[in-house]
Write a structure and sequence with these properties.
The protein has 788 residues and is α+β, with helices and mostly antiparallel strands. The chain folds into three domains: 182 residues, Multidrug efflux transporter AcrB transmembrane fold, CATH 1.20.1640.10; 163 residues, no CATH class; 234 residues, Multidrug efflux transporter AcrB transmembrane fold, CATH 1.20.1640. Helix content is 63%, strand content 7%. Strands 2-5-1-6 form a four-stranded antiparallel sheet. A three-stranded antiparallel sheet has the order 8-7-9, sandwiched between helices. Strands 3-4 form a two-stranded antiparallel sheet. A hairpin with a 2-residue loop joins strand 3 and strand 4. It is elongated, with a radius of gyration of 33 Å.
Length: 788
């Protein structure tokens, strides 16, 4: 390794132009990939699953049998000055929204009060008539008649309109496009523009929007908005920190060479594989900025350190590479391992993020050990402000005082660290996961408030989709089958969390009541398969807009029950699904039932997150631990270096558990990711310590040298990481915010571990061999570095 890194360093400083040419060529290929294959956005629910995932296959079967399955829901509240929603203005508003939606290319069906049809007996004939013949010109008599009709419409009450007539909603079924989110953005954006243009708010109306199209639009829109300003803000913060650190334009701007090349390269790879932008990988650019900045600071600090000793730029660049090559290589490998461990999950966006993020540190290493020092070798000047900053600044004085402090307080430090570890292990075992999409948005956001509105008035906007297979063609007409499904439907509707089910059964009951002179006693299922066929034929001939194709399949073999559910936590949803599945197995084993829908898929995501969080953390810990043993050629020092890398993660997990915070998709990424990043500084500190020991230094001198030579860079990189991740707190998504929060906390704790706990452990373990250590601590300046 030693001869290899010397040859590498010699090539970089003596052959800079081939390096620049190769870097430019690779950048050209990356840019060509980005331009020729634009990266789309995709935050659809199904894209979170692998192609053969059983949950995705069940959802695809639902779509194949019953068509489009996603709905956009618009809630309308009765105005304070109106008796209820049956007013001329409100019906006109509903009708204008209905027409707008029906004319939209993305919408395949609209259900609303203005186009509602009721089935009834008309002089002995089955009739399906419009509730309002002319919705844009309703009279008081029309409204009074509509109130009477709707009071008895079991198919509409609590699904389309509340029983008190104070709330009404419009349901628009939208086109399903696998792996595409653009149509959701289109319909929601057009709808919001229409609402604003029509000035409904100025007329006193409160409208509420929800449904999968709204969630998809919010994910993409907010992700784009966040990336548009958070990344530049993070860059600005970095510029300020760099200038305060190096007090020079060169030191402020040069790190962006590493960052820019890495971002362009990774984006080019992403474009080549046609992996879309998602809410998960929106954190990729900030992560690359932070990692690239940390590595660049180590290189610059080392370069300026040698320049301060009188070396010319080429010599300083050469020494920088030879001293940092091995620790920077292993920090890149360990960081890459931390990200790669995330690929163990079954969630596709996390896998894609893991692969891209794992390549990032390796690219950063290559640039930091080639193009960056090659460029620095051409910079002949070193500003006086930079020299002054590196001679006697606050950070230097702090790091020089660390050895004496940690020696005196080594026992309390190690004791407190052990207590923190035990505390963390106890509470980490109680971590809960909740990937409920409502929790992805801030509580004061309009989408969160609107989803709560639908929970309160319409039992939510998320559905359980229950598919029941009769086993034979036309099997849905059999009365025995229908009655068994009716029993299942009654059970589902009886659940406190569920609302009224939408199914073919209710239509059959309504039709039978209508042909029985509207007698409510005949709101029952048909008595025979022949009667079922006759009722369906009569209904079809009565001229309805509804063709019932979303409730039964073409072969009339499968039925669909759509069960609305209020929003609930992941753990509650898991218990509910277990309860339902247990009931079906016990009481409805004669039926072939499959449950799918968005809520089921989110629940599966929770399971994947739970499994992925534990597995990825374990794999990252194992791989990083092994790499430490290889790097330091010692199990003892490998374990010591792991302490400041692992304990902060466990502590952060323990604290959030104690606070009652559930982890989500973003925080699942944090564990493996921050472990990979946190070990970087530990590697630099322990590497310098062992280098000094190998050159004859005692424990105190070696720790002093490690603090003097690596401590400054550790402080600077940690500050950059903490501040950089903290910028993510300004985001719109709770998982994104939590990622920034937990990462910043972990990086801050890791700094304490690297500069306080790590030296204390070294004094405790290696200091026992140095019998004269106490005397040396009294008579020597612990911060003096060894001369090389």
């Amino acid at each position: 390794m030693n001869r290899f890194k010397l040859a590498w360093a010699r090539f970089v400083v003596t052959r800079p132009w081939p390096i620049f040419a190769l870097t430019g060529l690779l950048l050209g290929f990356a840019i060509l990939s980005i331009v020729s294959r634009p990266i789309p956005y995709d935050n659809s629910n199904e894209m979170y699953f692998l192609p053969n995932d059983p949950s995705l296959l069940a959802f695809n079967e639902l779509t194949d049998l019953f068509g489009d399955s996603e709905y956009l829901s618009i809630g309308v509240e009765a105005r304070a000055q109106d008796q209820d929603v049956f007013s001329q203005d409100t019906i006109h508003l509903i009708d204008s929204l209905t027409q707008m939606l029906e004319e939209h290319e993305v919408v395949t069906q609209v259900r609303s009060l203005s186009k509602y049809q009721y089935t009834h007996n008309d002089d002995g004939l089955l009739a399906t008539d419009d509730l309002f013949e002319e919705p844009d010109a309703v009279t008081a008599q029309d409204l009074a008649k509509a109130r009477v009709i709707m009071a008895g419409e079991k198919l509409a009450l609590n699904t389309l309109i509340t029983k008190d007539f104070q709330q009404v909603r419009i349901l628009a079924r939208t086109e399903y496009r696998a792996g595409d989110n653009s149509h959701k953005v289109q319909i929601v954006t057009d709808l919001l523009d229409f609402i604003e243009t029509q000035k409904f708010a100025e007329q006193g109306y409160q409208l509420h929007l929800a449904g999968m199209p709204v969630i998809g639009e919010r994910f993409e829109t907010l992700t784009k908005e966040d990336m548009a300003w958070i990344n530049p803000t993070m860059a600005l913060v970095m510029l300020v920190i760099l200038f305060l650190t190096f007090r020079s334009i060169t030191g402020t701007l040069v790190p962006w060479l590493v960052i820019g090349i890495s971002i362009i390269s990774i984006t080019g790879i992403q474009a080549y594989f046609a992996w879309p932008f998602t809410a998960v990988n929106s954190a990729l650019v900030p992560t690359l900025i932070i990692i690239g900045m940390g590595v660049s600071v180590h290189v610059l600090v080392e370069f300026y350190h040698f320049r301060g000793k009188g070396l010319v730029p080429k010599e300083a660049a050469y020494e920088t590479i030879t001293h940092l090559f091995q620790p920077v290589l292993f920090t890149a490998l360990t960081t890459s391992m931390g990200f790669a461990a995330l690929a163990i999950t079954e969630l596709l966006p996390v896998k894609q993020y893991a692969y891209l993020a794992a390549m990032g540190p390796l690219i950063i290493f290559l640039v930091a050990m080639t193009s960056l020092p090659a460029l620095l070798s051409f910079i002949p000047w070193m500003p006086k402000r930079t020299q002054t900053a590196f001679k006697n600044d606050l950070v230097g004085r702090v790091t020089q005082s660390i050895p004496a402090f940690t020696y005196r307080k080594r026992l309390p430090i190690v004791f407190v660290g052990a207590i923190a570890l035990l505390f963390s292990l106890f509470f980490v075992s109680k971590i809960t996961v909740d990937s409920n999409f409502i929790t992805y948005f801030k509580k004061d956001s309009w989408i969160t408030q609107d989803m709560h509105y639908f929970d309160e008035h319409f039992k939510g906007i998320s559905n359980l989709e229950v598919m029941v297979d009769s086993g034979v063609e036309d099997g849905v007409k059999a009365p025995e089958f229908l009655r068994r499904v009716e029993s299942l439907q009654d059970y589902l509707e009886g659940l406190p969390e569920a609302g009224d089910t939408n199914s073919l059964l209710d239509f059959l009951k309504q039709i039978r009541q209508a042909v029985s002179e509207d007698n409510p006693d005949f709101f029952i299922l048909p008595d025979s398969a022949q009667m079922t066929a006759q009722l369906l034929l009569l209904y079809e001939n009565s001229g309805p807009d509804e063709d019932l194709s979303d409730l039964k399949d073409f072969d009339q073999r499968h039925l669909r029950l759509t069960v609305p559910l209020i929003n609930m936590s992941a753990s509650q949803m898991t218990l509910l699904l277990e309860q339902i599945n247990t009931e079906i197995e016990a009481e409805y084993s004669d039926l072939t039932v499959e449950i799918t829908g968005p809520m089921v898929m989110y629940n599966v995501q929770d399971r994947y997150i739970n499994e992925g969080m534990f597995n990825s953390f374990s794999i990252a810990l194992l791989l990083i631990g092994l790499s430490f043993f290889v790097l330091f050629r010692s199990v003892k020092y490998g374990l010591i270096a792991l302490v400041p890398s692992v304990v902060p993660i466990l502590m952060a997990g323990g604290v959030v558990t104690l606070m009652g915070i559930s982890l989500d998709l973003g925080t699942m990424i944090v564990g493996a990711m921050t472990m990979g990043i946190a070990v970087d500084d530990a590697i630099h500190v322990v590497s310098r310590y062992l280098l000094a020991r190998s050159q004859g230094a005692d424990v105190n001198q070696a720790i002093g040298r490690a603090m003097n030579e690596s401590g400054r860079a550790v402080v600077f990189t940690s500050v950059i990481l903490v501040v950089g991740f903290s910028v993510m707190l300004l985001g719109s998504f709770i998982p994104y915010i939590n990622t920034g929060l937990f990462s910043a906390v972990i990086m801050g704790l890791a700094l304490v571990g690297d500069l306080i706990v790590l030296p204390a452990l070294l004094y405790m373990i290696d200091g026992k061999k140095d019998l004269s250590l106490a005397a040396k601590m009294t008579h020597t300046n612990s911060s003096q570095p060894l001369s090389k």
